[in-house]
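User: two proteins, same treatment. go.

Assistant:
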Amino acid sequence: MVYMNIPYALDDSVPVPAFRFQSIWKVQANDTYQAVQPRGFPSAGIFVTYEGRGTFTHPDRRDELGAGTYMIVPAGLPCSYRCEGGDWKFFFIQFDSLDIALQLELTVGRPAATAQMPEAVRLCKRLIDSLIVHPAGYGMAAQLYAQELFLLFGEERASAGRNRHPELDDVLFRMHRNIGRPLPVDELVRQSGLSRTVFFARFRSRTGMSPSRYMLELKLASAKATLETTDSSVKEIAAALHFYDEFHFSKLFKQRYGVSPRAYRQSLPPHLGGVIE
């Protein structure tokens, strides 16, 4: 292989939400259970109900917290909550701040149903276990388990969104893992199980470009990384990435990055780049 896979990095423009796990309660309640928070919780919280039923009341409404639901509650909201029907099993996690929920576009202040409750319960149990036995790095683990819970719900919500199109996930994985070989679009259409028209429409909605343009962007990014990290010649890179020839490759590279491949390599610091051709 004379080309490099593309680097994957978190762009500086992507916001990383502030988050700090504070506490978790596992509650198994009967009809005698009722709690009142006249001034609201001191920090945000999330109810994760896995069995039975409870109700949550605040000045504007009364919500039922049934099995298979979660509810994110902002800090400072006067409220009360109680068991209904003699059985309510839930976890309650306090955290700071709501940034993570807002960035994931999770519903705040109303119950939301989830099909991920078994995994959510597993994460809550692992969180509690880490706080009981204090393994190495348990503080970090607690933060990660709590964040993973929110990410679980966020990914579920996003997969139901109009532009997410999760049926394209495997197609994108295949494209990224096969940068160095021809990958006919018709193969990708067949893999998706969609009609050609629907596939192209959903792919553009998901990525902002056509499949052929997306694959070209991957190849050019791979070529750029190869120029930075290997001594492969422009001709070798063009051949490895299945461009028509080195001149066609050079033209596309210059259109994308503003300089030819040779000029780009010459502009690199001494510790980067291979031989100058």
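Protein 2:
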Amino acid sequence: MELRHLRYFVAVAEEMNFTRAAQRLQITQPPLTRIIQDLEAELDVKLFARSRGQVTLTPAGETFLNEVYGILAHCEKAVQKAQRVSRGEVGQVQIGFSETVICSMLPDAVRLFGERFPMVHVTLRNMTALPVRAHVRAIQERRLDLGVAAFPPPEPDISCECVLRCPLMIALAANHPLAGKEIIELSALSAENWIWFPRHLNPAYYDLCLRLCQQAGFEPRTVQQVASVHVGLSQVAAGNGIALACAALQCIKWEGVVYRHIRPLAYLDFYMMWRSEEASSSILSFVQTLREVSAQHVISTE
């Protein structure tokens, strides 16, 4: 029994005439008659009563027709759902992020994506306290579909694209002697205590920050290493040290903390990452959405 056989049966049942049903199906009548006979034989049930050129449904045929309507409707729904999944209109996207991008472009991308694909569920996972290499590995192992992080290590099976250039700023206590300046020379911070982060979390980012200090003529005196942005800002607010921070973090209004531009100007680059062989339309649609939001999202250096 094939789906087309059920559709042929419905056509005959609705037309109550083999000739009209054949015309509706755009086939000749003999094959249609043969298919209905084969269907009745397969079911071992008489579906139609034929008398003097008239066709009527038997009680068994009426029952079968109601069930077939449900079967065909379910099949049509399955086809439509499969097509929506193929177009990326239904499904799930799991995204890993760092706290910096959740303060900048990611909320806009999630909102726009939700407007375009309301049947796709987006799950966000904070990866800030984990090494960036673990972030990449989670994508490779399909525990995440996409990620956004600073300076991810290159991997042959992971596609990367820069989506955010974020100026670095200095976070310091509001009562710090230099808090009144709009721009602070990095060399003026050589005697400060620094709140830093463990190098294993993001070696490239760590080395960039260290190199900036060294180029300014000093080695930063680290008094504490923290893995959380919020813990770091609390230490800055307490006057225990200063910290380099991405300009996007200015959206975190931490009492007692101010952000100031530094000279020379330096940037932290954030990349979206996804599997190079990715075939999911939902995931690729989010990649495109993030790309569009990125083109409109520029963080001022002033």
